[in-house]
From TrEMBL:
Keywords: Aminotransferase, Pyridoxal phosphate, Transferase
Cofactor(s) needed for function: pyridoxal 5'-phosphate
Official protein name in the record: Aminotransferase class III-fold pyridoxal phosphate-dependent enzyme
GO molecular function: transaminase activity
Protein's organism: Phocaeicola acetigenes
Alphabetical list of PROSITE patterns matching this protein: AA_TRANSFER_CLASS_3
PANTHER family: ACETYLORNITHINE AMINOTRANSFERASE, MITOCHONDRIAL, AMINOTRANSFERASE CLASS III
DNA damage listed as a keyword: no
Entry's family note: Belongs to the class-III pyridoxal-phosphate-dependent aminotransferase family.
Length: 374
């Protein structure tokens, strides 16, 4: 049997990681400015994380959600405290798409509606309703194109107020900062207008913080720059530093009903141990504050490059837009300068490093990039 060919692959076999660095099977070291799609939050192979996961899997890796799991209780309490959402409820699942599916499902149970507002360049996942809410027709199969979703321009307050005024919208789903869409940042005015309009029309506001959350923006959630509180927040990626896990933070306005939501693997003991270790390290090493500090430095330095059309983002979620396609530049960064980066569309380089990135490592990236942009 062969693997189903879904991704074009770089001819690099990564076999080891430590902090913000990875190594291939030939022993070549790379600076990791992508963190495996923003998944590596506390750095590769952090010793506390390794110990916690190893100890848990040697004790109990998994058991059913039909019994008490004290690790889930502890995770909910600690996540509520560190994020500022103590009064919310937590539902644990396995992936970002799954988080968005369950948030949209719960929203529809709540108000009985079926229409969803999403935004231009949005990405919310590759399954069922999550992919329908993703503004990319190339990945929406005919079976997913069910007419539930209206796409609006990001930051267009009048357009969103007009749609919500119709009174038939179940939910608005929006990323704290658009990732796949090219590091597009919603304005404070837009987010506050959105919150008010949702309240006035009994529409559920869902913040997809799967890529922009968990400290990446320099605040725990990117939407916290705008001073709003959504009805639900979806998280994944950095929550367990590479172990498959996700969650939905759910406002007290929602009352749980047995049978509406469920999961086999979600919140299992091994996943919870990984997620708790992530919170341990984030707190001990002040990683949210580090993301803000090092990210501000990176953004400031990158804005000095005349070759870069625009630098966007917050913290360690940064987009570099060029006037020309970046495919060759990304290849040169990887194969000549030994730096992993991401892309968005044709003209944007995406930086999503582990939140432990140091000033020295940030400056090393600037140095390597400058060699290619001279």
């Amino acid at each position: 049997m062969k693997l189903f060919d879904v991704y074009p692959l770089f001819d690099v076999n990564i076999v080891k990681g430590k902090g913000c660095h990875v190594w291939d099977d030939k022993g070549q070291e790379y600076l990791d400015l992508y963190g495996g799609h923003a998944v590596i939050s506390i750095g590769h192979a952090h010793p506390h994380y390794v110990e916690a996961v190893s100890k848990q899997v040697a004790t109990l890796g998994f058991y059913s959600n039909s019994v008490i799991n004290q690790l889930q209780v502890e995770l909910a309490q600690r996540l509520g405290k560190i994020s500022g959402y103590d009064d919310y409820q937590l539902f644990l699942i396995n992936s970002g798409a799954e988080a968005n599916e369950n948030a949209l499902k719960l929203a529809s149970f709540y108000n009985g509606r079926t229409r969803v507002i999403s935004f231009a360049k949005a990405f919310h996942g590759r399954t069922s309703l999550a992919v329908e809410a993703t503004n990319n027709p190339k990945i929406i199969a005919p079976i997913n194109a069910n007419g539930h979703v209206t796409y609006l321009p990001l930051n267009d307050t009048e357009a969103v107020k007009a749609e919500l005024a119709k009174g038939d919208v179940c939910a608005v789903i929006i990323e704290g900062i658009q990732g796949v869409g090219g590091i597009q940042v919603p304005t404070t005015e837009f987010m506050q207008t959105l919150r008010t309009a949702c309240d006035e029309t009994n529409t559920v506001l869902i913040l997809d913080e799967i890529q922009s959350g968990y400290g990446r923006s320099g605040k725990f959630f990117a939407h916290q720059y705008t001073g709003i509180r959504p009805d639900m927040i979806t998280v994944a990626k950095g929550i367990a530093n590479g172990f498959p896990m996700a969650g939905v933070l759910i406002s007290p306005k929602f009352t749980p009903v047995y049978g509406q939501l469920g999961t086999t693997f979600g919140g299992n003991q091994l996943a919870c141990a990984a997620a708790l270790a992530v919170l341990d390290v984030m707190e001990a090493d002040n990683l949210v504050e580090n993301a803000a500090k090092v990210g501000s430095h990176l953004i400031e330095e990158l804005k000095k490059f005349s070759h870069i059309k625009e630098v966007r983002g917050e913290g360690l979620m940064i987009g570099l837009e060029f006037n020309e396609p970046v495919k060759e530049l990304r290849q040169q960064l990887l194969f000549d300068q030994k730096v992993f980066t991401g892309v968005s569309g044709t003209n944007v380089i995406r930086l999503l490093p582990p939140l432990c990135l140091s000033m020295e490592e940030a400056d090393e990236f600037i140095s390597r990039l400058s060699k290619l942009l001279k």
